[in-house]
Write a structure and sequence with these properties.
Structural class: alpha/beta
Distance between the termini: 21 Å
Largest sheet: 6 strands, parallel
Number of helices: 10
Number of strands: 9
Radius of gyration: 19 Å
Bound molecules: 2'-O-acetyl adenosine-5-diphosphoribose
Strand content: 5-15%
């Protein structure tokens, strides 16, 4: 047996995953950190200790109330996020999770990420709680917009922001801004997941700031279901989970994959 505690935990977690039919992954910005995307908080947090160039915290710049009065300002940061997502590729952790959802079809992924990298990795049973940065709609008439046509898929120089619909309304990405409630489809998905039983639950790369993200993990833990946190930093979940892997998500994924699917 290895004397390295991370190696021992990897062995344990790999065994649980290999026996599991139903796995729940709860993912956050840290999962995409190894694809070069910044996180909001914690390790690699872009705005951890500083305001935006507009002199307000990122949570204010990206809030529903700011969007209502200064959509140009909110869009400056929406564009930054969209442009970094447009240039990013799924990493080994997205691939690992996607493969498990394909091999164990009763597994689910609950993500807070709006970057679309889970989709691009061909993940099944995906719930995008906070929406998807590449789906655009008009905030006045609700019409869906062509992201490639209207804003060139977030590539090149930013167009005049905010983009506008034919009706003159301000266009926005179909994402949850700060202060906004979760959309009905996300609430329904959370209710559905609550009625399911999982064999293992993993939190990957999230600071677990929201009750609806914490609950699936604490509920599983209370029911005796093995829980895992993959995060180089610590969070409020750290003391709840049974297994802790304090390493970057893509590294954990590669080391787990080598155990689950040896060449
Ligand atoms: P956060 O930025 O709050 O947290 C990212 C977490 O990932 C931190 O705990 C980091 O320590 C960890 N991390 C950093 N690098 C990592 C790596 N390579 N591998 C694994 N973990 C790593 O991101 P979220 O928890 O996703 O919501 O934030 C939740 C929500 O906060 C976002 O969806 C967004 C924001 O408010 C909305 O926009 C509504």
């Amino acid at each position: 047996m290895s004397s390295d505690p991370v190696e021992r935990t990897l062995d344990d977690v790999a065994r649980r995953l290999s026996d599991a039919e139903r796995i729940l992954f709860v993912t956050g910005a840290g999962l995409s950190a190894d694809s070069g995307l910044p996180t909001y908080r914690g390790v690699g947090g872009l705005y951890e200790d500083r305001d935006t160039d507009d002199g307000v915290p990122i949570e204010v710049a990206l809030s529903g109330s700011m969007f209502a009065i200064r959509p140009d300002l909110t869009w400056r940061y929406l564009w930054e996020i969209g442009a970094s997502c447009a240039g990013a590729e799924p990493n080994d952790a997205h691939g690992f999770i996607a493969r498990l959802t394909r091999e164990r079809p009763e597994s689910w992924v609950l993500t807070q990420n709006v970057d679309g990298l889970h989709r691009r990795a061909d993940t099944r049973n995906l719930v995008e709680l906070h929406g998807h940065a590449f789906d655009l709609l008009c905030s006045r008439c609700g019409r869906e917009q062509d992201t490639a046509g209207l804003i060139n898929g977030y590539s090149g120089a930013p167009p005049d922001l905010p983009p506008r619909c034919e009706c003159g309304g301000v266009v926005r990405p179909d994402v949850v801004l700060f202060e906004e409630a979760l959309p009905a489809k996300a609430v329904e998905a959370l209710d559905r997941l609550e009625s399911m039983r999982f064999d293992v639950v993993l939190a990957v790369g999230t600071s677990a700031m929201f009750g609806y993200v914490v609950r699936p993990i604490t509920r599983a833990s209370a029911a005796g279901v093995p829980t895992v946190e993959i995060n180089p930093g610590t969070t409020d979940l750290t003391n709840f989970v049974r297994f802790r892997l304090p390493v970057p998500a893509s590294e954990a994924a590669r080391r787990l994959a080598a155990r689950l699917w040896p060449e």
